[in-house]
Specification:
The protein is an all-alpha fold. The chain has helices spanning about 1-20, 25-30, 40-70, 75-95, 105-110, 115-125, 130-140, 145-165, 170-210. Belongs to the UPF0056 (MarC) family.
């Protein structure tokens, strides 16, 4: 049971840092201007979180087959994933906020806010390559069903936290301001950097049998 909670909190902490829903608040608010009511923004937040969950759970469940198809090992993927996460951490440490916006072409192509919730909000703003890599690695490393359930639960809780943050986006921005959001982004970047380095170390140990 201790291993279950250890896996859950580690995966959830990594996911929350990688997804950085607080850092996505300014982008969400700029997109939410398309909503005509508060209920519309809530619906947008809900659909975004559902899209995040569906994206991550799909790659988590199919990750093992993806490894086999491409002939990759979990250790090699862990090293590559660690490098990717470390690069993301460096960007977060600079305090840079996401600059994804809806282009005029996307506005014309999007039939409804349902599409906007999926792209660009859920993918790639929140559940991007870093989040996908994280769930694939930890799901593959979990050898028993209890560990896999812990990863799935972490994905669910992380996705639900995205909904809570986006639902309260205006309050979050008013409370922290853009400076505060940048500060939180830097703190998450530092945490993510340490996790990325550990991921690379574990991958090297596993690959060379150290």
């Amino acid at each position: 049971m201790f291993l279950f909670f250890k896996t859950f909190f580690y995966v959830f902490g990594t996911l929350f840092a990688v997804m950085n829903p607080i850092g996505a608040v300014p982008v969400f608010l700029s997109i939410a201007q398309h909503c005509r009511s508060y209920e519309g923004r809530i619906t947008l937040a809900k659909r975004t979180s559902v899209a995040v969950f569906m994206t991550l759970i799909t790659f988590a469940l199919l990750g093992e087959w993806i490894f086999k198809f491409f002939g990759s090992t979990i250790d090699a993927f862990a090293i590559a994933g660690g490098i990717l996460l470390f690069r993301m951490a460096l960007e977060m440490l600079s305090g840079s906020l996401s600059t994804i916006k809806i282009t005029h072409e996307e506005e014309e192509e999007a039939l409804s806010l349902s599409e906007i919730a999926v792209i660009p909000l859920a993918i790639p703003l929140i559940s991007g390559p870093g989040s996908i890599t994280t769930v694939m690695i930890h799901m593959a490393k979990s050898t028993d069903y209890l560990g896999k359930i812990a990863v799935i639960l972490a994905i669910f809780v992380a996705s639900f936290s995205v909904y809570l943050v986006l639902m309260s986006a205006e309050k979050v921005q008013q409370r922290f301001g853009r400076v505060g959001i940048r500060l939180i982004t830097r703190m998450m970047g530092l945490i993510l950097a340490s996790m990325a380095v550990q991921l690379v170390i574990n991958g090297i140990k596993g690959a060379f049998g150290l």
